[in-house]
Amino acid sequence: MFINFRRIRKCQCMQLLTTGLLLCVVMVCWEELDHHVVSHMRSYTYRYLVDNYDFLNSSYALSSSRRNRKEGYYDADGGLGNYPYLMNHPGKCGGGGRDGQSRDDVLLLLFVKSSPENFERRQAIRETWGNESFVWSELGASVRLVFALGVHPNVGWRSRVQSALLQEDQAYGDLIQQNFLDTFHNLTSKLILQFHWGHKYCRQARFLMSADDDIFVHMPNLVEYLRQLLSSQSVAKDLWVGHVHRGAPPVRRKESKYHVPHDLYPWPAYPDYTAGAGYVVSGDVAAKIYQATLLLNSSMYIDDVFMGMCAKAMGVSPQEHVYFSGEGKTPYHPCIYNHMITSHGHATDVRSLWQAATDPTVSGNSGGFINNIYCTAVRVALLCLPYYQNTYSCMAAFT
């Protein structure tokens, strides 16, 4: 048999070149590959095979001396930790006594996380889905809207922005501000502010909602959903509902704003948590999260994750709702509006979306067998086809 050694050498060279090229591609793309594939495999393995987060109670627990100092300071009049109130409205939920009790029956305490300079976003919310008068007159529900703020991080702008905030608060009386820098890495301070303020001044609220100032909330649908929960069990308990992230890995890329170094969080997976853009907890869960913030070190600066850590430490698990969008944005269509609860990414179109989504003809055209078939087909086209990304999951089309 004749063997062509020249052809063999050519094949070997091609194999070497191909292998070298593949190795180069892997080396160049390793960071992305590690983040999107390897880290998720590790996190899911940890989440579903190990599922042991006992370290939260040991590694993140405060010492008894620090816990006593922290708890005592939170009970003082002036502040939250080292952050005194710059604006506060203790009587927002009615009564306003030190024990947080009131005769007012509040269905929902609505906390919106906002940046000091975002006046237009706050104003749009006041005029649409956060309008307390509308919710009471049209829906017969008692909702209390407040905005959680820090101080402007730019020293040069701070005085002017603060003066504008004081005027805004005099006009609307709904700003809750503490003396910490309003930055991404202080979002956990805002989360703590929400649960401590709610515990002290609005403990009677049946539900507490945390929301960003660039989300849209379909308040009629949300109120109906909460009332259904109350009617089914008279007192809603153990509720923490939103868009759930399960087995999510920490981001290790230093250029990402979500970067978490190993020395802060060395484990491969976070506890389950809901997207911080918008979620709802029942009153008993709000009380448990309050207690957890007294027990756990709040060094984790990603507030969504810290919420998950607090909930895990207190034995609370998040529940998925397909129409809580998380990071997603709703398609603009009446067949979506019939079911939507939250939608993310609405910094400029809140007023127009509110008008469209709450138009009486939307709910009026939703009944009947033919309309249901039509809307299901529309939702499948909008939510299940690959060209429409970053919105509700395909499961929402059939809910």
Task: Report what the structure shows.
- The chain is an alpha/beta fold and 399 residues long.
- It is built from 14 helices and 13 strands.
- It has helices at 5-50, 55-59, 64-74, 119-127, 132-139, 155-172, 187-201, 219-233, 283-295, 303-313, 334-337, 350-357, 360-364, 369-383; strands at 79-80, 83-87, 108-113, 143-151, 175-181, 207-212, 215-217, 240-242, 244-245, 273-274, 278-282, 319-320, 342-344.
- Helix 7 (187-201) crosses helix 9 (283-295).
- The model is unreliable at 32-36, 64-80 and 96-103 (pLDDT under 50).
Q: Strand arrangement, largest sheet?
A: 1-2-5-4-3-6-11-8-12
Note the quaternary state here. single chain
The portion of residues assigned to helices is: 40-55%
Q: Structural class, judged by helices and strands?
A: alpha/beta
Write down the overall geometry. Answer: globular
Number of strands: 13
Order of helices and strands: HHHEEEHHEHEHEEHEEEEHHEHEHHH
Mean pLDDT: 84
**CATH architecture descriptor text of the largest domain:** Alpha-Beta Complex
Q: In this structure, how is the largest beta sheet organized? A: 9 strands, mixed
Classify the beta-strand content into a percent band. 5-15%
Radius of gyration, whole Å: 25 Å
Total domain count? 3
What is the CATH third-level topology name of the largest domain? Spore Coat Polysaccharide Biosynthesis Protein SpsA, Chain A
Low-confidence segments, given as residue ranges, are 32-36, 64-80, 96-103
* Ends distance: 69 Å
Number of helices: 14
The CATH class name of the largest domain reads: Alpha Beta
